[in-house]
Design brief:
142 residues; alpha+beta; PH-domain like; seven-stranded antiparallel beta sheet; 9 strands; 17% helix
Length: 142
């Protein structure tokens, strides 16, 4: 999520609209074996967010996964962030992609299947846990 938030800010500085989108990600090899990352219902554990997110660039209809190389099977390929073309449409609730929509992209051998999480997942990002460490005058939590 942090990589997406930083990249979203950078895109904004360049005048490019970028929207944060929580997703579930399944990485599968040619035999169908793989690993699932993220969640359709991400949550916080302490100050750590348990989920995966991408950026959606509505004006160019692109999906950007800035942190995809944190996953071993993708990192081995060494191609950097994932950028893929997607078809978008704005819905009555303001979302750009319907929850449950799947975007399938190929990155070397692994097939990456992104499943769009619902609006509650985005809320989990922008509304962090009620209990954060209390800052002190030294800036170090107690």
């Amino acid at each position: 999520m942090d990589a997406c938030m930083a990249l979203r800010h950078a895109y904004g500085q360049l005048g490019v609209r970028a929207e944060l989108q929580p997703v579930d990600l399944a990485a599968q090899d040619k035999d169908g074996c793989g690993t699932r990352y993220g969640s359709l219902t991400p949550s916080w554990t302490g100050t750590s967010w348990n989920g995966h997110s991408v950026l959606v660039l509505p004006d160019s209809e692109r999906l950007v996964d800035a942190a995809v190389e944190q996953f071993e099977e993708v990192r081995e390929i060494g191609m950097g962030p994932m950028v893929g073309k997607v078809a978008l449409s704005t819905h009555d609730n303001g979302s750009l992609m319907v929850p449950g929509t799947q975007v399938v992209l190929q990155r070397g051998e692994p097939t990456l299947t992104y499943t769009v999480a619902g609006p509650g997942a985005l809320t989990s990002i922008v509304e962090p846990p009620e209990r954060w460490p209390t800052p002190t005058t030294t800036g170090v939590p107690e």
